[in-house]
Amino acid sequence: MYAGLQELGVANGEDLKETLTNCTEPLKAIEQFQTENGVLLPSLQYALPFLDLHGTPRLEFHQSVFDELREKLLERVSAIAVEGKVEERYKKLEDLLEKSFSLVKMPSIQPVVMCVMKHLPKVPEKKLKLVMADKDLYKACAVEVKRQIWQDNQALFGDEVSPLLKQYILEKENILFSNDISFLQNFFSPSPKTRRQGEVVQKLTQMIGKNVKLYDMVLQFLRTLFLRTRNVHYCTLRAELLMSLHDLEISDICTVDPCHKFTWCLDACIREKFVDNKRARELQGFLDGVKKGQEQVLGDLSMILCDPFAINTLALSTIRHLQDLVGQDTLPRESPDLLLLLRMLSLGQGAWDMIDSQVFKEPKMEAELITRFLPLLMSFVVDDHTFTVDQKLPSEEKGPIPYPSTIPEAFTKFLQENRIACEIGLYYILHITKQRNKNAFLRLLPALVETFSDLAFSDIFLHLLTGNLTLLSDEFALEEFCTSLFDGFFLTACSRKENVHRHVLRLLLHLHHKVAPAKLESLQKALEPTKQSGEAVKELYSQLSEKLELRKPSPAEVTETPSMELPLPTVPTPASR
């Protein structure tokens, strides 16, 4: 409590104890101690007895004076930090720190010492080491001081950042597995600016401040974790962090990050959920502008393009372009904007391989993707148009054209072997589901059972699919639809992929009342958790079972309803006359 006072020649509690132990007249000793160490203001000597008369303890008075002086001192320190020439003000602060640092462990004085350190751009290394070595001091110091400690202690900075990164991933997963299923509000609904206001991004932004070294450390952590886990949410955080610093106009960092302008332009596209022609040209300019010898920047650009929000925007734009090309009778290879979207999708999807191999070269685009797969998707769009027009014709003019039910073998093969084709194919299926196109959905659904790296069973796709399926809620009453969706798709992976099990239970929690009772009963049996199932699956299954139990008719309803027919009373026949 009194640490450091002796070094400054100020008496403390230990001195008073020693004085009282060795004196013959304690009252006189106390009076002398008060005179020597009290507030040296002559006029105050007459005021203190007045306070005594009012029953105000001396401790309360001195504490009040002390608190007031501390506040004035804190204000003065903050003022010194912005007054006069830079060298002069920092010299004053350094002198003040030298005089006061011995009191840093004294709780009442500590805020002043910490305030002085906070305003110094470079705290002496010796003092930083003393702060770092003491847990309580380290915890109490301002983030401005911690930055100076962190920049030379990557392990300590990693310990501070790690819980935040875990929290960020958990928050993303909680959104994907949320029980609130809707096609209107999904994982991609919040705007980029809204997402950047999240707790983790804001904390990391504050921790980094204007320190380029700390920013580079965070990026290195994100790259390492992305490589270790393949979790694409780290790519989202990489982009969000840069744009959060951009919002605060931290030019010290934004000007040295070669991805800044590219990320800024892409951020605007993500906000609109579409890459227009003007921004497409800007993005192409950035990619074409990577000079020889600077290829390493492609690693960071690919990570930014691997962000699910970027992939979502590029894939949606691709589907929209394909629909436009159908109306224009134009082939995919003749559209520069479409080719750019594919180039960026390819770069994003190849991020992990590029960073892992450290070979910074754009992935080569397969010609068949453009010449065979995309025209195949366009033929599906034409099939839909043809069928829709045919259905609108008067009955006598209708041709006997049933909706195509077979899938071209090439489509299934592309989804299995080509990552970009698989991503675009999945987004096309999401598109037709959102259009409530049941025929097209049931036609293409079998192709999803086996896809590249099981992308059709990824959390992001299943989150979007379950949301869009709410638009086809009435179809869940049909046996054919449920058999195709559950038995033909979901249940093929439930036993080996717990995340699929969770998404199916989420969907049934939302739409169980639409499913035929017999089908619902068989699904309930098929989805029963095993001993190996995680707590999340067991909890969801328990919730579903409770809901289904509530829907069962009560015994009173099941018993035979008594007849409503009342017996007619017998009326005596009038006597014949």
From TrEMBL:
What Pfam family does this protein match (any one)? COBRA1
Highest taxon of the source? Eukaryota
Which residue intervals make up region (Disordered)? Answer: 551-577
Quote the InterPro entries the UniProt record gives: COBRA1
Q: Name one GO biological process term.
A: negative regulation of transcription elongation by RNA polymerase II
Q: Which GO terms describe its cellular component?
A: NELF complex
**Name recorded for this polypeptide:** Negative elongation factor B
Q: Which organism is it from?
A: Chloebia gouldiae
